[in-house]
Design brief:
Distance between the termini: 60 Å
Order of helices and strands: HH
Number of strands: 0
Oligomer: single chain
Shape: rod-shaped
Helix content: over 70%
Largest sheet: none
Radius of gyration: 30 Å
Amino acid sequence: MTEENTSLLVLFEVRFKELIALCDRQMLKIQELEEALDQKNTELQEAMDKISELNAKCDNMLTAHVLSVHEGEVKNAKLRLSKLVREVEKCIALLTH
């Protein structure tokens, strides 16, 4: 083998090792990102479950309250319900960012 071929072979070997190292780093980064995504999805699901639970409680409380209020208080109940809905929507917006 000539000296030029040997140097080309050594250069190829170095570049190949660099490529393998880069692939290994990228695979670790992908794994870290997948784990972070799984964690965020779990947190999001827990938050969505909590929101659903709170919405159900809110609906039950509002239903009970609406049944017991007078006509003048219905407007106030609607305003409180609208406020609660906006708060829930804000929570959902925060969770999706």
